[in-house]
Amino acid sequence: MVPEQTTSRDDLPPVQVQPIGYVVTGYDRPEVAPPQATENFGERASLVVYERYADGLSGLENCPHIWLVTWLHSQREDEAAELRCVPRGLTGTGERRGVFSTRSPNRPSRLGMSLVRVAEIDGNVIHFYGVDLVDGTPVLDIKPWVRGTDVPPRG
């Protein structure tokens, strides 16, 4: 049983994070970038990791895929505030759903996740396939994709 929340958490301090690097892609605006990285695994891009974080890449060469946790910096303020949107597959219907039930890049938190395939790592630069990000998108973290763990259990 989940306990009922009786207090508001609106008084929590803001979360502050610093990017560990940024992506280099051929897209200058969100509306021209592919909607999902897994739908664009043929295109190559790069993640430049700031030198102070480069040592954290050790062992990543053993990971065929990684999750890029990003800050969707090109999102307009009015889009970030919208809590209902029309999912890409339903654009003809006009059906609006809550943003948290979609993969829309227009989110109040501006956080994004992209599953990409590692091509090679050259010093502090990760070359990858699976581009859905705008050039210069800040990367907040990298997580390895783990076979079995990143697939929900049956049942």
Describe what this molecule looks like in 3D.
With 155 residues, the protein is mostly beta strands. The strands form two sheets. It has a six-stranded antiparallel barrel with strand order 1-2-7-6-3-8. A two-stranded antiparallel ribbon has the order 4-5. The chain has one helix at residues 77-81, and strands spanning 21-24, 44-49, 65-71, 84-85, 97-98, 111-122, 125-129, 138-144. The model has no long low-confidence stretch (mean pLDDT 86).
What best-fitting shape do the alpha-carbon axes yield? globular
**Count of discrete alpha- or pi-helical segments spanning 4 or more residues:** 1
CATH superfamily of the domain at 21-75 and 110-144: YaeB-like
Task: Report the uncertain regions.
Answer: none
| CATH-derived topology of the domain at 21-75 and 110-144 | Elongation Factor Tu (Ef-tu), domain 3
CATH class designation of the domain at 21-75 and 110-144:
Mainly Beta
Spatial order of strands in the largest sheet: 1-2-7-6-3-8
Q: Give the termini distance in whole angstroms.
A: 19 Å
Rg for CA atoms: 17 Å
Query: Given the helix and strand composition, which structural class is it?
Result: mainly beta
